[in-house]
Amino acid sequence: MNEKKKLLIIKHGALGDLIQSDGVLKDLRRHFSNAELVLLTDPKFERLMQRCPYIDRIICDSRAPWWHLIANKHLFTQLKQEQFHGIIDLQNSNRTQYYQQLLFNKISWHGRQTSIKPKSGLKGQIDILRNANIPLVFAEKPNVKWMADDVSALINSENISQPYIALIPGCSAKHPKKRWPYYAKLAETLLTQGYDVVNILGPDERNLVNTLPGHTLIEKRGISSWFEMAGTT
What we know:
By secondary structure, this protein is α/β, with parallel strands linked by helices. It has nine helices and eight strands. Helix 8 (about 185-190) links the parallel strand 6 (about 165) and strand 7 (about 195-200).
């Protein structure tokens, strides 16, 4: 009886990159239809990716500092015991290169083949699949409907009219300059064109509550998970 192949896909984050990788993961599932696909990711994305229909299992990697010997030893032991048949490195970081050298130097490894950074994270992932001769069908068409919860009760309770457009002006608190500065103007324009506007804010955007036209949903007023956010959009 043939042994079922087990492949490790590495994608620690961040959230936007994981969402963009939806089509890439679907193509991997399509190509390795009979394999067990295991995702190595950050613990804060475990609950999210457990819902992904293309992944069989999650292993969490907190990317502990190298001097944190106990945490790293526990992870390395677990990864070695898994006996993966191949690795798909969608993260392509210095850390994952170290994993390759330390843990998987005798295993088939597919990752970025050049030191030149791609134009986008998704473009880099697509290049990895192309170089591995994995057919590209869904990679450029991510569709995360699997994330969405039914939020019709929330929409009704906030008196949000149809049709509406959801705006998510989020960015990392560490990189506020990455936030596009024209969300308020965009919301005003959409309202004049007959759309209702729903602004979805996370903890790092609460200072925008009184600056955005339309309905503003924050964690304390309905939006309590990624799944509800996806349902709103």
